[in-house]
């Protein structure tokens, strides 16, 4: 029998209890979970609280609601848990992961790109421009992210593209960290070098261009204990 949900943050606690049952394998992927009144009784909460908890887990991809049939376990993996763990990672860790992903993306993009892909990449680089102080650089971060994600898309590897979008928030943090700080900020020329390397259809050259792009930030973080923390 499920443990009764605590009386604080009831919807979150109810969601945690449901997630624990899924993680323990008591509700297998593909199975239907108890109906709303039964869940409310098991958890000791109102049906409205159960409804909110289920909605939360649906948004995280763990549950799915099938109209006229019930609520089913869609996945045993909760991506929010991974994101919580990643929040504890240092900025250097985030840059190193980003480098690993983008090196492979550039390598594949060099082999698989089309003329249209290159035109799009160059257009995104032109739109990237420079930070606008009026919005704190927010629009610039989005434009820079769009450029880098385009390279990942050109790689033609869906798993790689989805992984990068899953951690897009952390990629934004790495971009923001180079604005107005002691970290070296990659200039337009550094971005052009990556585009040219991809255009060359030389995967090793493309991979090295990304390594050279990322290395100054990672080296600076490795030498600065304050930034690492």
From TrEMBL:
UniProt keyword terms in alphabetical order: DNA-binding, Transcription, Transcription regulation
SUPFAM superfamilies reported in the protein's UniProt record: GntR ligand-binding domain-like (SSF48008), Winged helix' DNA-binding domain (SSF46785)
Domain of life assignment: Bacteria
Pfam family, one: GntR
Family annotation (InterPro entries): GntR_C, TF_FadR/GntR_C, Tscrpt_reg_HTH_GntR, WH-like_DNA-bd_sf, WH_DNA-bd_sf
Record keyword Acetylation present: no
Domain spans labelled HTH gntR-type: 8-76
GO terms, molecular function: DNA binding; DNA-binding transcription factor activity
Keyword Transcription regulation applies: yes
Name of the featured protein: FadR family transcriptional regulator
Organism of provenance: Variovorax beijingensis
């Amino acid at each position: 029998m499920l443990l009764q949900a605590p009386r604080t943050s009831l919807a979150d606690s109810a969601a945690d209890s449901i997630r624990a049952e899924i993680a323990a394998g008591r509700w297998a992927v593909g199975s239907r979970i108890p109906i709303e009144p039964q869940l409310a009784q098991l958890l000791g909460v109102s049906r409205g609280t159960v409804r909110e908890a289920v909605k939360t887990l649906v948004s995280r991809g763990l549950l799915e609601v099938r109209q006229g049939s019930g609520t089913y376990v869609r996945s045993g993996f909760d991506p929010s848990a991974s994101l919580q763990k990643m929040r504890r990672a240092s900025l250097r860790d985030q840059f190193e992961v980003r480098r690993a992903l983008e090196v492979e993306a550039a390598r594949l993009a060099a082999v698989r790109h089309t003329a249209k892909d290159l035109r799009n990449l160059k257009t995104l680089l032109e739109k990237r421009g420079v930070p606008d102080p009026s919005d704190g650089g927010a629009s610039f971060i989005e434009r820079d992210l769009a450029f880098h994600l385009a390279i990942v898309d050109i790689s033609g590897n869906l798993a790689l593209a989805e992984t990068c979008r899953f951690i897009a928030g952390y990629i934004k943090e790495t971009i923001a960290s180079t604005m107005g700080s002691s970290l070296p900020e990659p200039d337009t020329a550094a971005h052009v070098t990556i585009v040219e390397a991809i255009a060359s259809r030389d995967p090793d050259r493309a991979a090295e261009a990304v390594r050279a792009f990322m290395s100054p930030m990672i080296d600076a973080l490795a030498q600065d204990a304050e930034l690492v923390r």
